[in-house]
Amino acid sequence: MIKNQPPMMGAWALVTGECQEERDGPMVDYEAVRYSSLKILSETHFTFITHAGDAFSCCAGGVYSVEADRYVEQIQTTSSPHLLGREFAFQFRLEGDLWHNTRWENGVQVEHEIWRRVG
Predict the structure, then answer these.
(1) Contact criterion met (CB below 8 Å) for 17 and 102
(2) Residues 73, 64: contact at Cβ < 8 Å?
(3) Considering the entire predicted model, what is its pTM?
(4) Where are the beta strands (DSSP E) in the chain?
(5) What percent of the chain has a predicted confidence (pLDDT) above 90?
(6) 12-44 pLDDT, tens per residue?
(7) Pairwise CA distance, residues 39 & 107, whole Å
(8) Which residues is 109 bridged to in the sheet?
(9) Which residues lie below 8 Å from residue 57, measured CB to CB, with a gap of 6+?
(10) Which long-range contacts (CB under 8 A, 24 or more apart) does 48-53 make?
């Protein structure tokens, strides 16, 4: 076991969520668009792949950090060029095998995801 390993290290499957895909746009319900995603975290890096229904949607990876209840991803590689180099900061909480992430921009919630540990 890695000393002081991040608590979310491992494999996670998306359970549900919603996000604002366009600035000032409506929240998109993940179940409505049939998003499924798998996210894998090592000690320092993450990667994920997402499908919308049966079609590929996006994949990305990079480095992440955890401090207190803050989880931050820095995108270093992606299938969506507009995400390259971006940083996404989430407030998170772990409840058993569930990982809740919430992201805010300018005081407005723009994303909320729930992941289930699968490995």
Answers:
(1) no
(2) yes
(3) 0.90
(4) 10-20, 27-29, 35-41, 45-52, 55-67, 70-78, 87-95, 98-105, 108-117
(5) 82
(6) 999 999 998 777 778 899 999 999 999 999 999
(7) 26
(8) 104
(9) 35, 50, 51
(10) 50/14
